[in-house]
Amino acid sequence: MTTWMTDDVVLFRDNVRKVFEREFAPLEERWRRQHLADRSVWRQAGEMGLLCTSIPEAYGGGGGTFAHEAVVAHEQGRAMVNSFSINVHSGIVAHYLLACGSEAQKQRWLPKMATGEIVAAIAMSEPGAGSDLQAVRTSAVREGDEYVIDGAKTFITNGHHADLVCVVAKTDPSRGAKGVSLLMVETAGLPGFRRGRLLEKIGQHGLDTAELFFDGVRVPAAHLLGDEEGQGFRQLMQQLARERLLIAIGAVGMMQRAIDETLGYVAQRQVFGEPLLAMQNTRFKLAECQTEATIAQAFVDACIERQLAGTLDVPTAAMAKWSTTDKLCRIVDECLQLHGGYGYMTEYPIARLYADVRVLRILGGANEVMKELIARSMERQA
Questions:
Q1: What integer best gives the mean pLDDT of the chain?
Q2: How far apart are CA 185 and CA 193, in angstroms?
Q3: Do the strands 164-170 and 180-186 form a parallel or antiparallel pair, or are they unpaired?
Q4: Crossing angle of the two packed helices 232-268 and 66-78, in degrees rounded to 10
Q5: Which one-letter DSSP state was computed for residue 269?
Q6: Catalytic annotation, residues
Q7: What are the pLDDT digits (tens) for 291-346?
């Protein structure tokens, strides 16, 4: 128990855990085979109160706090249900709208996001621009009451199902970071908009990661986020700390899942006439993993408390993101080793975790970029 885990949040966590374990986890194998979740899962998630949990009730949300978002992220990671990204939909896009959108934009999109009627994605990465968002080449040119968008995006989570895409584009290429803007794009029947192939990945095979193409796509000028052009980079920086903390929260959930799976396996696996758990190496390795996971959880809990208080800064969120995802990969590797040959078989959860977690050191900003952000903040203090 922590100060942020109130009785209300504990009850919510227990319900969310049951939903992921009973409703969604049994479908993961089929989703992995078909390389995307069923579209209906979004409606189901909305009906079960998993979407937009911290968006005010006035906009159709759950009216909760970041604590409720944290619970959803943790339990989704713990249940190994990664074929649809609530983090991107609710934790990121919904909060761009809440923080930066006009009243009309909030009323237009947030209620439908809360029910799962529309699925949201954010289009940052491009074939030539990943963590360096100032290098995006997608353009949005104002023509009267519309913007004309041209460009290509890649690695877009929820990309196949997305009905609403928050597009990072250059409205003034001559101004660098000050020329970046965010535009909301409704994809249904939109001329010039095209989805590319579902990308083949090492892991997370059920997540609809796609390419998106914009060829002379016209969107109303009223779909610009913010009251003027050029605010996009600042808007991104304001929300990226939230995104990175959500990644860290999911990472600690997956750490514990890896340890629990391994503990169950070594307790029943017989080696030289006794359980593998009886061997000192096994016991010590698991003790190390549990210690590291517990330390990571404590730091993440502290970050959640700071986020709730409005004091979480970008460097601290970067620390949480890089440290937990690095630690997660090491713990999963140790746990796979304790499974022996069976750890390499994909019917075992530990093998799927091994493939799925590697990308967390890259998405949301590569861990090397996280360290650079931390180092810059230290340099300013020197």
A1: 96
A2: 10
A3: antiparallel
A4: 40
A5: -
A6: 243
A7: 999 999 999 999 999 999 999 999 999 999 999 999 999 999 999 999 999 999 99
CATH 1.20.1260.10 fits 122-229, yes or no: no
Fold of 7-118: Butyryl-Coa Dehydrogenase, subunit A; domain 1 (1.10.540)
Q: Are 363 and 251 in contact (CB under 8 A)?
A: no
What single-letter amino acid sits at 71?
Answer: V
CA dist 16 and 80 (Å) reads 13
Rg (CA), the chain: 21
Report pLDDT digits (tens) over 22-49. Answer: 999 999 999 999 999 999 999 999 999 9
Query: Within 10 A of 33 (CB to CB), how many other CB atoms are there?
Result: 9
**How is residue 126 annotated by DSSP?**
B
For the chain, the straight-line distance linking the first and the last C-alpha, in angstroms and rounded, comes to 37
Residue 93 DSSP symbol? I
Amino acid (one-letter) located at 18: K
Residue type, 317: A
* 40-47 helix and 103-115 helix, angle to the nearest 10 degrees: 100
The CATH number corresponding to 233-381 among 1.20.140.10, 3.40.1390.20, 3.30.160.20, 3.40.50.1440 equals: 1.20.140.10
Q: Which residues contact 362 (CB under 8 A, 6 or more apart)?
A: none
Q: How far is CA 321 from CA 176, 196, 360, in A?
A: 27, 29, 9
- Residues 6 or more apart in contact with residue 269 via CB below 8 angstroms: 275, 276, 277, 340
pLDDT tens track for 209-242: 999 999 999 999 999 999 999 999 999 888 888 9
Place of tokens 């535009």: 183
The string of pLDDT tens digits covering residues 53-71 is 999 999 999 999 999 999 9
